[in-house]
Amino acid sequence: MKIASVEPFILHLPLTSESISDSTHSITHWGVVGTKITTSDGLEGYGFTGTHAHLPSDRLITACIRDCYAPLLIGEDANDHQRLWTKLARYPSLQWVGRAGITHLALAAVDVALWDLKAKKAGQPLWSLLGGARTAKLEAYNTDIGWLSFSRDALLAGAARAVEEDGFTRIKIKVGHDDPNIDVERLAAVRQRLGGAVRIAIDANGKWDLPTCQRFCEKARDLDIFWFEEPMWYDDIASHAALARNTSIPVALGEQLYTVDAFNAFITAGAVHYVQPDVTRLAGITEYIQVADLAHAHRLPVVPHAGEMSQVHVHLSYWHPASTILEYIPWIKDHFHEPSNVVDGVFLRPQQPGASTTPLAESFARYGKSLG
Ligand code: 0YR
Ligand code: MG
């Protein structure tokens, strides 16, 4: 399994619906920015990070893979994921320019490709290679019905469809209007429409400050909110710890945290209840495992962000004992050889060897971008 080539790529995949907005982002495409790694025995591994399909910054990620990481990888044994992770992450002049951000997203792509190779070589799906899956089902929660850009009527109709027709028992709704009373009113309407049994989580994507969150939580206290995700600025540990202490709604976060050290700081401060790592923002599966184990050691649930729209996270969630539910956003799944699949609100367990990260040739041909 000697590494023969490292070939980065950029795909800009159109969202399955219209454009969407949360409190801080408006997007029309999802960027799948990553690399193929080919070994001397002819195996191909694929890994990628996720972006908002902004070509100039996507090209910084592929330039890092092509110009900085590839020369350090060629000729190495692809099986040595931990040694290679450390070689790239701790390479002195690369560590100097980035222990997070672009270099970390690029490392995520490389690391996932190495794990995909390892699982393909073993002829096993990733969850099996890692140690085998639980028999319990992995519940999906639907985020795709809850965008902030949806009108109140569209939100109600989508939530009802997800629950009554598609069989979801869990949904997530975006919040973060300048006037939080608008969000309270939208949530109250959804709760009334769906009844008490459906689990409703909310997500502010980092928009509000502590007083706004405290006022909001007070007004939303009777709506049985399952968790409040990214209420405030992503790196603000003290404010999240204060909110976690002062409201009955559990705090969820992690999709914007790059390192195991950042998770450690939030967890030890008591600033998070639902831990939401993302293999595409952490440096891949290798760092994700550390975060999931850290959370588990603190007896906290791990609910990965669907930043790669669930492909790798389905494997990791079926494997890791701290994970029983996972975000569902179906934007990019149909561009892969083994799409993630939800039936009656439950993710099916992947069956093909690898990490389910191999894009279709048609998707490369149609949505591939030049690396510049
Ligand atoms: C848009 N899930 C999220 C979308 C979503 C984001 O940036 O990717 O809202 O990933 O917060 O929990
Ligand atoms: Mg989120």
Query: What's the average pLDDT?
Result: 97
Total helical elements: 13
Report the CATH C-level class of the largest domain: Alpha Beta
User: What is the structural class?
Assistant: alpha/beta
Name the helix and strand elements from N-terminus to C-terminus, one letter apiece.
EEEEEHHHHHEHEHEHEHEHEHHEEEH
Alpha-carbon distance between the two ends: 30 Å
Largest sheet: 5 strands, parallel
Q: What's the oligomerization state? A: single chain
Q: What are the distinct ligands in this entry?
A: (2R,3R,4R)-N,2,3,4,5-pentakis(oxidanyl)pentanamide, magnesium ion
Give the proportion of residues in helices. Answer: 25-40%
Architecture overview:
This protein is an alpha/beta fold and 372 residues long. The protein has 2 domains: 3-123 and 361-367, Enolase-like, N-terminal domain (Enolase-like, domain 1), CATH 3.30.390.10; 129-347, TIM Barrel (Alpha-Beta Barrel), CATH 3.20.20.120. The chain is 40% helix and 18% strand. It is built from 13 helices and 14 strands. Strands 7-8-9-10-11 form a 5-stranded parallel beta sheet. A 4-stranded mixed beta sheet has the order 12-6-14-13, with helices on one face. It has a 3-stranded antiparallel beta sheet with strand order 1-4-5, with helices on both faces. Strand 10, helix 10 (260-268) and strand 11 (274-275) form a beta-alpha-beta unit. Helix 6 packs parallel to helix 7 and helix 10 runs parallel beside helix 11 (284-297). It starts with a strand and ends in a 5-residue tail after the last helix. The site of magnesium ion (MG) has 6 residues, from loops. (2R,3R,4R)-N,2,3,4,5-pentakis(oxidanyl)pentanamide is lined by residues 22, 25, 27, 143, 203, 205, 255, 305, 327.
